[in-house]
């Protein structure tokens, strides 16, 4: 064993970790469990438990409808927190609303409408399914075409291929900043500039980067973006999502779902729809107050930790996992399915193995390690920088090595990947 992969090295990293104290801000799972699925569902902040108790027992039970005086601005207030601390947006450019899928539809529809005469949407074939499905449905409804760029399963779409797919017929280029399967991190500023070079609007999915990777929406001049609240943002299962619209575009873009929370002077109950002049025009119906309140607490913890420190730790943890996998797991039939350079990937690491699904099931049942499986043969390991220890990464890889070396995963080989129903 090399010095870098000795457990003592992981212990030293924990001892020097400037984010170490944040671990105690989260509710502990059962003893012995190692959770490496923070890129799918973040853990529960202790502050959220207190906040939800206050929302339910005081604001709802006691305040009743009077509490809307405090609730009404939650979507924009939490949106500004996300914008300032996690995605590099200006005040008034981010709002919490709906789900990622609905937000993607709203923004893609608005973008296509803003580019009349253009009939092509560009994306890649390894983009997250909801993105591909939503764009395909929108294209069908509007008589447009989706132009799909082939994506390398490890490194993502080649910038040259993306550039070749862009022309004056393209209305929107829509991509994920971090690939959900491999963790490949795309060059957001360069790709955004390429879309602008042909007059197209750029729409980014930030689900696997918000809260773990610097995004810099304003600096890059990004037009539109969406992201979810239940992964690195620790907003809870099904947490509300967020959307971003660059400020100069807000007065002119029209989203297709004309709800009363996007209406100017909404309580006048006007006869005709007259949208707000700012980002609030992208709201639809009444916000899910409990969900937005929970999301606010998750975002506050990350804001306090600082995105640069979260990014540094995320790279260090996935680099430790990569080094351990190279030494221990490649001889057991695994392959690295994420970029080798830590700066070229997000905060999760993916390994490929022909029996990946059985291994992922066995990890949970036999080794008390919760990772994640993605078809067809990928095991994702997502240590969340805010709440995971380096020694947990080391112990998880050690348990994985022992389990596969002993063949204990094979008792789970009859289970079908179709049995798993999680986002």
From TrEMBL:
Names of the cofactor(s): pyridoxal 5'-phosphate
Catalytic activity: L-kynurenine + H2O = anthranilate + L-alanine + H(+); 3-hydroxy-L-kynurenine + H2O = 3-hydroxyanthranilate + L-alanine + H(+)
Pathway(s) annotated for this protein in UniProt: Amino-acid degradation; L-kynurenine degradation; L-alanine and anthranilate from L-kynurenine: step 1/1; Cofactor biosynthesis; NAD(+) biosynthesis; quinolinate from L-kynurenine: step 2/3
MF (Gene Ontology): transaminase activity
Annotated SUPFAM superfamilies: PLP-dependent transferases
Modified residues (N6-(pyridoxal phosphate)lysine): 231
EC number: 3.7.1.3
Gene3D superfamilies documented for this protein: Aspartate Aminotransferase, domain 1, Type I PLP-dependent aspartate aminotransferase-like (Major domain)
Keywords: Aminotransferase, Hydrolase, Pyridine nucleotide biosynthesis, Pyridoxal phosphate, Transferase
Domain of life: Bacteria
Similarity comment: family membership: Belongs to the kynureninase family.
UniProt function note: Catalyzes the cleavage of L-kynurenine (L-Kyn) and L-3-hydroxykynurenine (L-3OHKyn) into anthranilic acid (AA) and 3-hydroxyanthranilic acid (3-OHAA), respectively.
Name by which UniProt lists this protein: Kynureninase
Species this protein is from: Sporichthya brevicatena
Taxon lineage: Bacteria, Bacillati, Actinomycetota, Actinomycetes, Sporichthyales
């Amino acid at each position: 064993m090399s010095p870098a992969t000795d457990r003592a090295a992981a212990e030293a990293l924990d001892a020097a970790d400037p984010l170490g104290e944040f671990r105690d801000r989260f509710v502990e799972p059962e003893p012995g469990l190692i959770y490496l699925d923070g890129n799918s569902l973040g853990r529960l902040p202790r502050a959220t438990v207190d906040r939800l108790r206050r929302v339910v027992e005081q604001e709802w039970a006691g305040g009743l409808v009077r509490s809307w005086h405090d609730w009404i601005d939650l979507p924009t207030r939490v949106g500004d927190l996300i914008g300032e601390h996690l995605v590099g947006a200006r005040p008034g450019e981010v709002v919490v609303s709906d789900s990622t899928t609905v937000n993607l539809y709203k923004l893609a529809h608005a973008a296509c409408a803003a580019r009349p005469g253009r009939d092509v949407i560009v994306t890649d074939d390894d983009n997250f399914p909801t993105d591909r499905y939503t764009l395909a449905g929108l294209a069908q409804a509007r008589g447009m075409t989706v132009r799909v760029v082939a994506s390398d399963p490890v490194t993502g779409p080649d910038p040259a291929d993306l550039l070749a797919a862009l022309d004056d017929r393209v209305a929107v280029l829509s991509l994920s900043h971090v690939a959900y399967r491999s963790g490949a991190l795309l060059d957001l500023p360069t790709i955004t500039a390429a879309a602008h070079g042909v007059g197209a609007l750029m729409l980014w999915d930030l689900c696997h980067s918000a809260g773990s990777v610097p995004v810099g929406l304003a600096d890059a001049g990004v037009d539109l973006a969406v992201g979810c609240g239940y992964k690195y943002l620790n907003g809870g299962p099904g947490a509300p999502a967020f959307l971003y619209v660059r400020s100069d575009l807000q007065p002119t873009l029209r989203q297709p779902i004309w709800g009363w929370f996007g209406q100017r002077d909404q309580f006048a109950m006007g006869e005709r729809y007259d949208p707000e002049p700012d980002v609030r025009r992208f709201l639809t119906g009444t916000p899910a107050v409990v969900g937005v309140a929970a999301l606010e607490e998750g975002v506050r913890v990350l804001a306090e930790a600082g995105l640069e420190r979260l990014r540094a730790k995320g790279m260090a943890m996935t680099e430790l996992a990569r080094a351990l996998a190279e030494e221990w797991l490649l001889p057991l039939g695994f392959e690295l399915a994420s970029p080798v350079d830590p700066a070229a990937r997000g905060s999760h690491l993916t390994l490929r193995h022909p029996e990946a699904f059985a291994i992922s099931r066995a990890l949970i049942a036999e080794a008390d390690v919760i990772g994640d499986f993605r078809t067809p043969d990928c095991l994702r390991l997502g240590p969340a920088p805010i709440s995971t220890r380096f020694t947990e990464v080391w112990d998880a890889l050690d348990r994985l090595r022992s389990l596969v070396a002993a063949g204990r995963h094979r008792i789970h080989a009859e289970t079908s990947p179709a049995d798993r129903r999680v986002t």
